[in-house]
Amino acid sequence: YVGYDKVPSVLPHAPAGRGLSTEQRLRRRAGLVLAGAGYVEVKTFPFAGPGDFDQLGIPEDDPRRDQVLLENPLSAEEPGLTTTLMTGAMKALALNVGRGHDDVAIFETGRVFQPKESAPEAPIYGVDRAPSTDEYAAFDEALPDQPLHLVLAATGRRERAGWWGDGRRVQWADAVEAVRRVASAVHVDLAAGGGEVPAPWHPGRTAVLRVDGAPVGFAGELHPRVCRAYGVPARTIAAEVDLDAILGAAPELG
Predict the structure, then answer these.
(1) Where is 159: in which H helix or E strand?
(2) Who contacts 106 (Cβ-Cβ below 8 Å, separation ≥6)?
(3) What dihedral angle (degrees, nearest 10) is formed by the CA atoms of 84, 87, 90, 94?
């Protein structure tokens, strides 16, 4: 009889001469910039359901409701993979506010899952052998698009009062500035301007963020109905951007 205690622990040998890729370094830089600006990184589950989209005020015909559904979801209320990081960020923000934290500023980087219109159903193979090259290609064809997004949310005081002067609460421009800092850190010009603004943002206090003229996300104040739905203070701010699109425009990757 041989138990698990008899199995030796063997550490793998790390290959020499390798480090983070350029893309990985840029991603890390984005996180460090936000941490330096006072935002705390969170990691949430990538699952969502119709109730999450209802709380965000997302219309029934919005493509963000088109999810990749799971065969065995952990929760019946969250049967699919999320299409927006706002679902997890707002839950994390509401949890902290509900526990008595008045000043909260969080961010997360993670992938969202966007089904392809004509993607075939993913094949299921046996486990008696490794998939062939063609079978791997069939897997890839069935995979959804998975862009890397960045989300942030904040409420309460952005600056505390002290001998240096009066403090102030967060305002929608702080969300824009936070994303601008990330773009600046990777040497990308980010423009903020007007345009059509979807839920969950306030249409009059939100900017459309663009890189080279193409929209990459939104930053501003959340709609009052969304704040009430999550039980967070009015005028809470948030931003969500396609981080892959921003990093893809960085000179280091050009």
Answers:
(1) strand 157-159
(2) 39, 40, 41, 42, 89, 92, 93, 96, 152, 153, 154
(3) -170
Q: What is d(CA 103, CA 157) in angstroms, rounded to the nearest whole number?
A: 6
**Cβ-contact 174, 156 below 8 angstroms:** no
Q: How many CB atoms lie within 10 A of CB 52?
A: 22
What are the phi and psi torsion angles at 174 (to 5°)?
-65, -35
Does the pTM surpass 0.70? The reply is: yes
Sign of CA pseudo-dihedral 35, 40, 43, 47: negative
Nearest alpha carbon to residue 194 among 207, 178, 185, 181: 207
The tens digit of pLDDT for each residue in 88-138 reads: 999 999 999 999 999 999 999 999 999 988 888 888 888 898 889 999 898
Mean pLDDT (the chain, rounded): 94
Check if the beta carbon of residue 242 is closer than 8 Å to that of residue 217: yes
Would you give the distance in Å from CA 238 to the centre of its chain?
11
Closest by CA position to 107, among listed 170, 159, 171, 182: 182
User: What does the block give as tokens for 81?
Assistant: 């993979």
The answer to whether 149 and 240 have CB atoms below 8 angstroms apart is yes
